[in-house]
Amino acid sequence: MKTIIGWREIVFFPDITNRAIKAKIDTGARTSALHAFNIETYKKGRQEYVAFDIHPLQRSKKFTQRVVAPLIEYRSVKSSVGTETHRPVILTDVVVAGRRFLTEVTLVNRDMMGFRLLLGRQALSKRFIVDVSHSFLGYSKDIKKYKAEFL
Predict the structure, then answer these.
(1) φ, ψ for residue 30, nearest 5 deg
(2) Which of 6, 32, 67, 69 could link 135 by a cystine bridge, Cβ 3.0 to 4.6 Å?
(3) In sequence order, what are the residues at sequence separation of 6 or more whose Cβ sits closer than 8 angstroms to the Cβ of residue 140?
(4) DSSP secondary-structure letter at 53?
(5) Which residues are within 8 A (CB) of 38 and not within 5 positions of it... i.e. 6 or more apart?
(6) Is the CATH number 2.40.70.10 carried by domain 3-146?
(7) Please, which residues have CB within 8 angstroms of residue 62's CB and are 6 or more apart in sequence?
(8) CA 109 – CA 2 distance, rounded (Å)
(9) pLDDT 10s per residue in the chain (151 long)?
(10) pTM of the prediction?
């Protein structure tokens, strides 16, 4: 059964940060994109990793967190303004509206954008229906379950 969510939602990445991140739900984007900077890749044994910094709090640079994750691949992604970038991709758990699942996330500097996270069609498909007239429809479900752990 699909869960109804709004055009923006509170999202949790348990493997990345203990902070909630406000996300724009973007049915026009294929993959999800997380604001990241100071992105560095390195190899340890046979596995490639990506290390990056995030500012999980919207419109705030006061809190910075360093994250390390296995690198899945690099992918060419065309932005909404038509610019193509080559982005690192990670696979991570995400929690939206009380549902936890694995999803691919590209890392890109989104300093100039309103949201630190775009949640794209791959993450939404077969799980959610987006009601564009509302925001944070899944928020109360997540807060009850994750407030003590994440907020």
Answers:
(1) -70, -50
(2) 6
(3) none
(4) E
(5) 51, 52, 53
(6) yes
(7) none
(8) 31
(9) 899 999 999 999 999 988 889 999 999 999 999 999 999 999 999 999 999 999 877 767 788 899 999 999 999 988 777 889 899 999 999 999 989 999 999 999 987 777 889 999 999 999 999 999 999 998 765 555 554 444 4
(10) 0.88
